[in-house]
Amino acid sequence: MTQQLCVVISPHVICSHHNAAATTLVKMWPIASLLLALALQGVWSETSSNDTKVDFPCKVVDGDHVYDLSELAARDYWKYDETLHTGLFQSRVMYMSFCHPLRNAPVVCEGENVGVCESKKDDTGSEVPLGSRGQVSSVGPAITEDGWLSYVFESGAKCNKSIHDTTYKTYVHLYCARDTASETSGPMLMSSPGCERTFAWMTKAACPVKAEIKRESCTVKFSNSDYILNLHTLHTEKYYNVSGSKAKYELNFCGPVTGGHCGSDAATMCDVTDPSAPVVFGTLEAVCTPDEAPECVIEDDKGNVYDLRSLRKEQGNWEVLDERDDHKDQLYHINVCGQVNEGRHYHCPPGPIGACQTSFDALTAHNLGFLTSHPSINEDGSITITYTGGDQCQEGKHARSTRINLICNDIEYEPVLVEETGTCEYIFTWLTPAACPRHLKKGTNCLVEDPLYGNMYDLNPLRNQIKDYNVTDGEHDYLINICGPLVSKCKGEGQSGVCQIKGDEQFSGGMATSNITFNDGTLVMNYNGGTGGCAGNNTRSAQIIFLCDQNESGRDGPHFFHEDETCTYHFTWLTMHACPPFSVVDCSVVTANGTIYDLNELSSSSMNEEYSTSDGNKKFVLNVCRSVVHNKESRCPYNAGACVIDLKHKNKALNIGKVHSGPYIENGNLKIKYSGGDPCGNSTQLSETIIQFNCDKEELYAYPQLVAQEGCKYIFEWNTPIACPMPLIDHTTSAPETKGNCTAKNDFTGYVFNLNPLKKKTGYEIQDSGEVHLVLNVCDEVDTERCPDKGTGACSYTHDDHTNIASAGKANAKLQYHLGFLSLYYTGGQACGNGEKRSTLISFICGAEDAPDIPVLIHEDLDKCIYYINWYTDLACERRINCFVDTWEQRLDLTPLIRSTSNYEVSNPENPKQKFYLNVCRPLNHIVGLNCRPGSSACLSVSESEALSLGQPITTPQYIYSDEIQMIYSHGSKCLTNSDIGISSRIIFICDVNAGKGSPTYKNVTHDCQYLFEWRTALACENRQEVTDSGPVCQIQFNAAKTNVNLKPLNRPDGYSVKFADKEYKINICGAACGESGVCTSDGTSFGLSSKSDLNWDYDKLKLMYYGGDSCSDALSGQRTTIIYFSCNMSVGLGYPVPDPIMRDLECAAIFNWETNLTCIEAIYNMDDSSDKKPINSDPVVPDSESHEAEKPSVEESDSDNPSADQQQKEPESAYSTVSAAISSVLIVTGIIFVIILVLFKSERGQQVVSSARRFFGMRGTSTLLLDDMM
C-alpha cells in the first residue's frame, strides 16, 4: 500500500521530502520508528511495485483545495485502444502516463521523458510504434476557467502532417467524477486533427480535496479519505529516549512526556541535549493514512487471483458468538473489504473499523481494529486480514486487534473465533470458497501464462501460413486459422479468423484474434463479431478449446464439436502446445533371462488414470512412464507422475512423485516408482508413489487401486493383461517340445508372421571369414545329403574338412515373436570340445528395404557353443515406420539417410575405445563379430564381440518447429548405472544447407541412460535441394489376409508405358522407370522419385504415392507427385496401370488405377502344397488401347514376371478353396448391398446418411483424400 510519513511538530509540519531535519530525526529514532512499524503492522513500510519517485509536478493548489493526480501516476501506463474505429488489425493504440515517463509499456517510442506513445497494429496483430505524441508535463496539471483540470503533453515526435515544422501534442481534459465506476473507464479520444490528440477523462482523481487535517484525540482523519488511524498503541506511561550523534530527545505519543526533563507538563517532544536548557518542540502527531481502500481482489506472485468481494456485506455484518464459558455474552461483528455496518440492536464505535466486540450484559462495545492494511497471501495459500489500532486493553498496555485467516474450501462456513492472545489479538478462522484462487489469465499475441505454475503457453506454431485449416460438420465447411486472419478471404474481406461455407454462401464466424485465455488448465480462444442475422438476430461467433495431448503436434487442426443456439461454433483442438513441460521415459524392461515387459499401452499422452477415495475427499491422478496430462480436472505439478488432489480444498494438488525412470522388476514383481515429490505433511521426507503391475489376462477394465499408504509412500496395485511378459531370448531353454508351424503372432496387434516360404530342403549355406561353414533350413530339417544326422536344422563343418560335419541343433518350427524381431532356436546338437552342445539361434529382422535377404553368421560364442545368425527378410515385417515429417510447406524426408548395407560409425571423443553404430529409421545392418540385440537401430560396442543396444525404431521422427527433427530409439539394453531402466537414444537432426546428408556426432548421455546424438544435414531444411536416395516401399500389412502384400512382382526392368492425352508416361513399381523417377513422361519430366514413396490402405484400395518430382508451382510441396490406386481383380493377373480421367484437370500430379490379383485374398491363399506359397500371377490384361491409350507389354515381359500358360493350365479346377467360395458368397451379397446403397446415395436422404456415417466413423471419401493431396 502506498504511504507517506509526515511528522507534525506544532506549529510546523515536517515531511521527509521537504525538510532535511526530518530525515535526521528519523535516523535518530530507532525506538519510535520500530514501535510505529509494529503499530501499523507494516502499513507504511511495505511499498507496492507501483511506488515511483515523482519527478514531475502532480498537484495543483487552488485556495484551500488541492488537485492531486498521484492516483493516476501510480500506474506505469494507461492504455487506449481504438479497436472500434478502423478494425482490429489497423487500429491504433495510445499509451499514456502522468507525472512520470512511460514505464514497462509493450511498445517503446524514442525520445526523452515520453508521456504519450502511439502505435498501430499490423496484419499479424503485432504493435508497431509510430512515435512520441508528447513529453511529460514539466508544469503539471492546470485548472481551467470551467473548474476542470488540463494536462498537456508537448514536444512529441516531429509531425509531417503540417506545412510548418511542428511536433505532436496531446491534451487531456480531466473531469471530476465521484463514482468509483468511472475510475476504470480510462481516457477517451475525442479528436485527433493533424498533429494534436485530445482526450477526455472522467475520474475521481480530478476532484478537489480540502487542504486541512482533522484531529480528534489520537486518531487522524484526512478529508480525502474515509479511514481513521488510531495511534494510541504508541503511547507509553513515561517517555522514549532517542539519541543521535550530537543530540538527545525525549518524546511520547498521544500524551505528554512524564517524569522527564522537558520542563513542561504538556510537552510531547523536546531536545534534552542540555538538560538544563531543554528545547520543547510542542505537540507531536504522526500522520499515516491509507491512500486507498483495502483491496478486495488480490493477486499473488504466481498470478493467482483471489476475489473477496463476496464476503463484503452492505447490510449487517458477519456475526460470531464467543463460545468460551466465561465470555458467552460477547458477540463479534466482522466485515471484509469495508467497515462494519451499523446494527439495530448494537452500536460499534465510530470510524472505519473492520471488527468490533459487543456485550449483551455489560452493554459495551469495543473497537477491534481499523482498516489499516490490505489482505495478505501466505505461503500455504491462505489469506490473512489484519485490523489494528483498536481500543485499549489490559490497562492500556495493548490495543485490541483482529486477525482473520481465510482458508480455501468448497463449502462456505461462518467465521469462528479460535483464540484471544495475551496481547488482545482476536484470531478467527474462516473456511470459504472466496479464499480459493481463480487460475484465470488472459494473454495476447497467442501467448498466455499459467498463473499457478508460471508456464508460458505459445500457440504461434499452430498458425498455418500456407493455407487455412478445413473442418466440416457434415453440412458446412469451416476455414479456421489462429494468431492472425485467414489466409484466404471470407465474403471478400480479409479479417475473419473463422469462415463458415455452405455451397456458394460464406459467413464470417468471427474476426481474427490472437487473444487467448487460460482458464484453470484449459486454453480458450474466442472469435467474435462475425456475420449477423443468424437464427433470428444473432451474430456468429466461434470458440476453440485447446486440449493437451503430449504426442499430437496439432497440425491436423481442430475438430468440430457443436453449434449452440446463439450461433456460436465450438471446436476442440488436441495439441502438445496446450501442454506444459512434461517428462517421458522408456516404458519397458528386459529381465536377465530375456523376458520383456512393455507398459507403453498404459502410457497415455492425452488422459490420466484416476482413483478416488471412498469418502470422496481425495482424488489420485496417475500416468505411466510420463507426466500427468494437464487439464481442468488434473491441475497437478508439471513433473508429477502421480499427484493427489484435495477435493475439499479446491486446486490443492500434492506432487507424490516425479517421473525419473521406467518400470523395473523387484522380487519377481513388475513395478514403477515415482520419487522426489512434495514434502509430506510437516516432515522433510518427500512423497513417493509405487505402482505394482500384476499380470491378469482376464481383467478387461483395468485401473489402479490404492492398497496402502505408509507415511509419505503411496502404494497402488494395477491388474492388467498389459503387465503380462513377452519372451525375448532364452539361451538356457532346450528345444521346444512341440514343433510348431513356423508362424508367430504379435499378441498386441494380432498380426501373424509366416516364415514357411523360407523352407528349403537343400538348406542355406553360410560361410564366414574364418573357418566355420554352416548349412541350415528354416522350420524344417536339412536334407541328409547335406547334414547326415536326421532331424538336423543346422550343421557345421570347417572349410577344409567336408567329412567331419557336426549337428548344430535339431530342427523345429517353433517360431517366437519378440519386440523387433522373430527367433528360431535349434538346440541339442553335437557336443563341442568343452562339452556344451551346439545350438543355433536365428533372428529374423525387418531390415531396410534393400537389405540382402540372406542369412549371415554374426557371432560364434565359443563358451556356450552357440551360432548367432541374423536374417533380414520382408517376411519379418509387420510395418516399417515412416522416415519423414510434414511441415506446413513440404515433407522433410530422411529416407536418403537409411542404409541397407553398412552403418554409420561414431566415436566417443571422451572415450576412444567406445564406438557407436547407427542407422536411421531402420535396424542396423549386419555387423559381423559384434553381437548386438537384433532389431536395434543403435548399438555401443563394449568389447570385441559384445554390444549394448541403444534402442529400436518404434516411433516415427518428430518435427520440433525450429528446423530440427527428433528421432528416438527405445527398448534398449539395461542401463549399466541403473538396471531398473532401459537404454534409449535420441538423434537431433539440425538444418544445415551446406552439410549435404551429413553425419552423426555423439554429444553425451543423460542420467536416465539416454544417449544423445546430433546430426547436421540439409535434409532437415525446408526449401532445400533434394538429396537422392534409394529404397522404395514395396510391402504393406494386409490385415484381412493376416499377411503382407508385396508389390515386387510388378517390377519390370523397362517399366510400363501408358499414354494419356498428349503425354506418354513411364511407370515402374519397386524401382525406377527412368533415371531415379518412379514415374516420368517421355520428355523426362519426373512425377516422383522411386526412393520417395509411401504405401497406405485407402479403404479397400492400396494407395502408392511417389513424391519429390520436378518442380511445379501449383503444387503445395512445389514438386510433382503420382498416386497409383491398386484394386483387387482376380481375372487380370498382375494387371496394368490405367490413367484416371481426372488427370486432364491436373498439372502437378498423375493418377493411375491398377487392377491386380496381388491385393486379393483369394490370390494370396490359393496355393497348392508344392508351391513356394506365392500368389498366382497370370498375364496382365492390358486395357483397350483406344479408350485408354495404353501400350500392351511384350510377351517376353509377361513371361518374365508370370507363370507360363502350361503352369496355369495345371492348376486344378478346385483351386478355389472352401474359404475362397465363402468369400465369393460374401462378395456377392456385398455387391447386392452396394447396389442398394448406390441407389440410396443418389437420393438426398442417402447423401445425408452417408455424411452422417462418415462423421461418426471419422472417414473421408476417396475424392476428398484426393483433393487434399493435390492442394
TrEMBL record:
**Localized where?**
Endomembrane system
Gene Ontology cellular-component annotations: endosome membrane; Golgi membrane; trans-Golgi network
Q: One Pfam family name from the record?
A: CIMR
Q: Which organism is it from?
A: Penaeus vannamei
Specify the taxonomic lineage.
Eukaryota, Metazoa, Ecdysozoa, Arthropoda, Crustacea
List the Gene Ontology MF annotations in alphabetical order: D-mannose binding; signaling receptor activity
| Name of protein | Cation-independent mannose-6-phosphate receptor
Q: Where is the composition biased (Basic and acidic residues)?
A: 1185-1195
Looking at the record, which segments are called Disordered? 1171-1213
| Secretion signal, residue range per the UniProt entry | 1-45
Any one of the GO BP annotations: lysosomal transport
Is the Iron-sulfur keyword given for this protein? no
Enumerate the transmembrane spans.
Answer: 1219-1241
Q: Give all residue intervals belonging to the MRH domain.
A: 56-209, 294-438, 444-581, 585-726, 740-879, 881-1023, 1032-1162
Keyword annotations of the record = Disulfide bond, Membrane, Receptor, Signal, Transmembrane, Transmembrane helix, Transport
